[in-house]
Amino acid sequence: MKSEANCLIAQSGGPTTVINASLAGVIEKALNGTNIHQIYGAINGIQGVIDDNLLNLTDIFKDNDSTIQQLKTTPAMYLGSCRYKLSDFTENISDYSIIFQTLKKYSVKYFLYIGGNDSMDTVDKLSSYGKSINSDIKFIGIPKTIDNDLECIDHTPGFGSAAKYIAASILEIAHDTYIYDIESVTIIEIMGRNAGWLTAAAALARNEYSAAPHLIYLPEKPFSTGRFVTDIKEEFTRRKHVIVAVSEGVKDIAGTYISAESAKTDQFGHVMLSGTGKYLEGLIKHTIGCKVRSIELNVLQRCAAHSSSLTDIEEAFQLGQYGLDAALKDESGVMVTLNRTSNFPYTVEYGTIPINEVANLEKKIPIDWINEAGNDITNELIEYIKPLIQGEAPIKYIDGLPVYLSVDHLIKKK
């Protein structure tokens, strides 16, 4: 048996309802039948490693299975997050020196980072630097993102639950809208800068009596404001109420975002968008003059654990376990992944993929899954998303509200 070694876990990027399920998967695996002596969690991602701000997870979760189960259904990040971009180590080694000093201080042999595209970039850089200095530390990426835009994986943990929340919300918005005997347009803006997976999930709200959303616009196809107005007018020939789902990142034929775009970008170079729904609301008021309202789901779709998908939770948990398994088998510089093996019945298999095949790439919706007019999606896309929203989370309620694991360690001032 190998000598004792320690494990460090961190989370970063945007929150989801199931990222803590992956954390729970790693913790449970590490506590049962491994040579891991201590499990640490970095507070606020890679910044916590740089700042030597670690939490002893063994002390919190050892011999406490009920706490691990509660962690599985607690939304957002138990360990906190960051959006910190590491420089290339060939240009600036300072962060790497500090990080590896911290890893040595805590005898860390296995480092697992749970996050999205930018987090996989961090894993890739740490792994590459580790190889350059002949470090034996294993670096593993565990995927998450509600955007579902990571390559080399059928779908990302977090997407299924966000999709379920979006579909349920649009069904409820439709019920709210149908009560008035007046022509109206309701525009729902949904996250998605360059990939429209979340907006496409709105189609799951359709049922035998409601066709809402009646129009769906994704960033994968050019958006025309003139065609948008025409589409609304055509819908009014068939119905009194028109409900639209639109991605925040829709662009015109020249590739310019139609939203009221900020000139700013974040530290990873992503354009910071705002105002797509409001812009289109003003357009309809000016051109058609009917009652119109825009709704921005924004962060509401990220951490709605009360509406999470049990399928999503269990897959996230399994990916966490598989990630530690990969590290224990001496894999490094990889992301754990899952591939769909069947749609009917729905089944998946788990594996790993070299991290450099994932980092800084973006998976978009296939064009043939969007209709020719660019205002709806095909049945293939609906059948792709539908299995991912199945099942309800076993969340405990007290006084009518869900009970989540305390994150007091993130709230208190130092």
From TrEMBL:
Site for Important for catalytic activity, residues: 144
Residue positions binding diphosphate: 14
Pfam families documented for this protein: PFK
Binding site for substrate: 145-147, 191-193, 248
Residues at which Mg(2+) binds: 117
Activity regulation (UniProt): Non-allosteric.
UniProt cofactor(s): Mg(2+)
Database matches in InterPro entries: ATP_PFK (IPR022953), PFKA (IPR050929), Phosphofructokinase_dom (IPR000023), PKF_sf (IPR035966), PPi-PFK (IPR011404)
Pathway in which the depicted protein is active: Carbohydrate degradation; glycolysis; D-glyceraldehyde 3-phosphate and glycerone phosphate from D-glucose: step 3/4
Known EC number: 2.7.1.90
UniProt site (Important for catalytic activity and substrate specificity): 118
Subcellular location as annotated: Cytoplasm
Active site: 147
Keyword set includes Cytoplasm: yes
Catalytic activity entry: beta-D-fructose 6-phosphate + diphosphate = beta-D-fructose 1,6-bisphosphate + phosphate + H(+)
UniProt keyword annotations, A-Z: Cytoplasm, Glycolysis, Kinase, Magnesium, Metal-binding, Transferase
Keyword Transferase among UniProt keywords: yes
GO CC annotations, alphabetized: cytoplasm
GO molecular function annotation: 6-phosphofructokinase activity; diphosphate-fructose-6-phosphate 1-phosphotransferase activity; metal ion binding
Complex formation: Homodimer.
NCBIfam families: PRK14072.1 (NF010675)
Record family assignment: Belongs to the phosphofructokinase type A (PFKA) family. PPi-dependent PFK group II subfamily. Clade 'B2' sub-subfamily.
Function: Catalyzes the phosphorylation of D-fructose 6-phosphate, the first committing step of glycolysis. Uses inorganic phosphate (PPi) as phosphoryl donor instead of ATP like common ATP-dependent phosphofructokinases (ATP-PFKs), which renders the reaction reversible, and can thus function both in glycolysis and gluconeogenesis. Consistently, PPi-PFK can replace the enzymes of both the forward (ATP-PFK) and reverse (fructose-bisphosphatase (FBPase)) reactions.
Protein known as: Pyrophosphate--fructose 6-phosphate 1-phosphotransferase
Source species: Mobilisporobacter senegalensis
Lineage: Bacteria, Bacillati, Bacillota, Clostridia, Lachnospirales
